[in-house]
Every structure is written in structure tokens, then in C-alpha cells.
């Protein structure tokens, strides 16, 4: 006989995978498309040379891009390998899962068809993405990809190939990306399910008694739950009677940017030192920004 807690863990684990896998598939197919059909020359025309303009334009593009944090890392890695500056890629990665129209509309519905929460969520996300991108542009040189991710494939958009050969190459790249990030998705889903099963919500509520502590608790909860950004607003709305608006915004902004799943995926793409700074900057700006709301 399996214990009740193990059955609950199993149910949560499977539900996280079912929720995340479609977005991972979308992400890896987009990454494959970028590899085979988008050239460095195309990207050079889109991304400005100026650092500030590059970060701002990438953040705006991310805001129009309906991506989930489950699949954004393979896309960003492929863009950086194609020559997109690191700071622009990070700005895109931080806004894509949060500010896109699907996420903002689901937030609008979850909070009683009111626009204040989507406004706070979108505004703080954009500010955090731009600030982090600008700091990254000053602090880090190079693409910060690990050696495995930095090796370019001989088959890409720069070659003289027929459409069918490029399409087949896109499928191969998508499959490689899926199996590369899939193992981290499974590990992340299991850890998140275990945390949800064995860490009591009442414990978190006891910790988050003060205003600052409540923001930190909700950020930690967002990290642990590892919800897809299209659905997290409905969970956040259930805490309206317990936590302040600012702490709920912290939950809605920090979770899509940093959770268990995408941190493990980032570890497969970027250097550990870079990820440590990236997560720290995001946490600091989200915390300070949410306190001001």
C-alpha cells in the first residue's frame, strides 16, 4: 500500500509534467527553427548595437512573445549562439514568460476582471528585465554559455540547403533540445512536487507575518511551486485574503523568472557563476519593486 503522501506527490508530479511538456515542445521547435532558418544577418538587423537599446528592444519583443518559462531557455540559448548579445537574450528571457498577452489576460481573469494586477505584474516584470539586462551588459563579457552549449553545429541557416533539408535539420535540433532539457524538467517537477507535498502551507503563513517576510515567502513559494505562468495567477488569487497585493505581485513576477524547473534548465546552458548573479539580481529587484507597490 502506498502512503497518501506518496500518492499526492505522484499526482502533483504528473500534473506538472502534463502542464509543462507542451510548452517545452513549443520552445524546442522554435529553437530548432531559429537554428535552421534564422541567420546572424537577420538578427543583426533586429537587435541594435547600443546596449540600452538592445535591452529595451529585446524586452519589448519578449513582451509580445507567448512563451512559457518551461521552454524559454532553449530559445534564448539558440539566439545567443546565433549572435544575440547576452544582455538582450536575458531581457527577452525574463519578459517572455510574464508579459505576453496570454499571461496578462489570464491574470486579468483570475483577479476578477480587474486590470490593476496585470498592470503591476507587467510593469514590474519589464522594469526588472531591463535593469537586470543593463547590469549584465556591464558585468559579463562573452555569452556565458557552458562549453557544451557553446559548440556550434555545422548544420545551420548559413548553409546552402533546400527547404526540406532545413526542415529535417530543424526536427533533429528540436529532438536534441528536448532530450537535453527534458531530464531537467523531470528532476525539477519531482522536486517541486515533493516540496508541495511535504512543506505545509501553514508553515509558510506563520513565517510571513511581517510585510517584508510575506514578500519573501511568496517569492519562495513561487520558486517551489514551479507553476507555468499561464496558470499561476489563479493560484495567487487564492491568497488574496492572506497576503498583500505587493506580495502577490512578487509571486507573479518572480515565479516565471526563477523556479526550480528553469534554474535546472539554465544550469544546462549557462555557467554557474552567471546563474548565481542572475538569480540574485532578479530576487533583489523583484523584492524591492514589490515592496513599493
In short:
It is a multi-pass membrane protein. This protein has 293 residues and is mainly α. The chain contains 15 helices and no strands.
- Along the chain, the helix and strand elements come as HHHHHHHHHHHHHHH
The N- to C-terminal Cα distance equals: 49 Å
User: How many separate helices?
Assistant: 15
- Tell me the number of structural domains: 1
Taking pLDDT < 50 over at least 5 consecutive residues as the criterion, the unreliable ranges are 149-155
Biggest beta sheet attributes: none
Q: How large, in whole angstroms, is the Cα Rg?
A: 19 Å
Hey, roughly how much beta strand do the residues contain?
under 5%
Main structural class: mainly alpha
Query: What percent of residues adopt helix (DSSP H or I)?
Result: over 70%
Features of the shown structure:
single chain, mainly alpha, globular
Protein topology:
Layout: H1 4-37, H2 40-46, H3 51-63, H4 69-81, H5 86-99, H6 101-110, H7 116-139, H8 147-150, H9 163-198, H10 201-207, H11 211-225, H12 232-237, H13 245-257, H14 260-267, H15 272-291
Overview of the molecule:
The chain has 293 residues and is an all-alpha fold. 76% of the residues lie in helices and 0% in strands. It has one domain (19-291). It has helices at residues 4-37, 40-46, 51-63, 69-81, 86-99, 101-110, 116-139, 147-150, 163-198, 201-207, 211-225, 232-237, 245-257, 260-267, 272-291. The longest helix has 36 residues, at 163-198. The protein is globular and about 60 Å long. The model is unreliable at 149-155 (pLDDT under 50).
